[in-house]
Amino acid sequence: MKNYYIIDFDSTFTQVEALDELARISLENHPDRESIYHEIERYTNLAMEGKLSFREALAGRVKLLNANKSHLDKLVSHLKKKVSTSFSRNREFFKKHADTAWIVSGGFKEFITPVVTPYHIKTENIYANTFRFDEEGNIIGFDEENPLSNEGGKVQLLKQLNIEGRLFGIGDGYSDFQLKESGLIEKFFAFTENIQRKSVTEKADFITPSFDEFLYVNDLPRAISYPKNRILCLIVGDVPEIAAHILKRDGFSIRTKDTFEEKYVKDVGMLLLGDNIDISDEQLQHADKLKTIGYLGDIRGHINKDICNAKGIVVFDDKKNKKKNSEFIPRRMADFINNGDTYLSRNFPNLILPKVKQVTRLLHIHQNVPGIMAQINKVYAQNNINIVAQFLMTKSDIGYAVTDIQGEYDKDLLKQLKQIDNTIKFRILY
């Protein structure tokens, strides 16, 4: 049986609620715009939380909009810039699943279709409401015969479609959960990248902080190999809020603590430390998942650089105590996790890597000994791997090789690369 993916639009595929955004465009010059905005948002939240019927909320919002077709053009341009980050980077999934990735929304085709079709979503797989217009192009209502305009509209629609296959739903609102409640879908994933509604998350089969997480859990094609929301970033000491904000906005799982507590040692993937914070040798030795450390000060005397080298931990620090480094250092950490860049690292060779699409990027950190690249490339050759690009730099006892490969590969390739003598750390980036 085929798997079908039923995806919501507002606050899921996009970061925002489209009707709320339309109101901000159409009512821009209205003297009572602020009070009307709040009333429209109130309708939205009541419906999403299941406290007001969808039909009542929809009618109330549309009546308040005072919008026309020219406002819709502006809205579409705005929404194209507001596609959720994790959806935006996973176009390849939609290309490979063009027949089974569907948008099912209580929103409106007039603004949904132009936003999602560039992502290879077919127009026949977009199910949404439609506006009614007067002769001058003003929005005067919606098609009340469309099941999606009703309370429980998504359930009504899927019953009518009678799809033969396994259905998975992903969304942020009560109407999405109703699909699970009805028994029509196999699993419901509460999407929380943009907003988290307790009334929805506590009833979901899974909580998915990003589309990457949804794809990872279901073993589907994805832009990054490991969801960033699964990478624990621990912030310790006196660290400005802007630093935490940068990493949280990038999608990492953030914890802020006064000390490096023992319970986090084995699971931490990133450490951002305030000045004068000490990390013991024993903690470093046991931090097996730790990939990078950012230090808002000089690490000398606080962190053992030799152990970081031996474990393949990339360190970025602030020797000159520059004010902007509270923003610069977390961005360097994120660039390493996201793209493999080690620019201005304290202990690693400095690499700024091009961002290449439709490749698999493999990072191999090793001891800087003669012949190791020959071993790496022998493994690639034996597995008939097409290498698109390869980068190698060394610094003292560290070697850092980045290889972009194209096409399918056997998972045994990864095992072989990890088993090469003098390998320190290996990971698939994307």
From TrEMBL:
Keywords: Amino-acid biosynthesis, Hydrolase, Magnesium, Metal-binding, Serine biosynthesis. Residues 361-430 form the ACT domain. It catalyses: O-phospho-L-serine + H2O = L-serine + phosphate; O-phospho-D-serine + H2O = D-serine + phosphate. PROSITE patterns: ACT. One of its GO terms (cellular component) is cytoplasm. GO terms for molecular function: L-phosphoserine phosphatase activity; magnesium ion binding. Its cofactor is Mg(2+). Its EC number is 3.1.3.3. Pathway: Amino-acid biosynthesis; L-serine biosynthesis; L-serine from 3-phospho-D-glycerate: step 3/3. GO terms for biological process: L-serine biosynthetic process. This is phosphoserine phosphatase. It comes from Sphingobacterium siyangense.
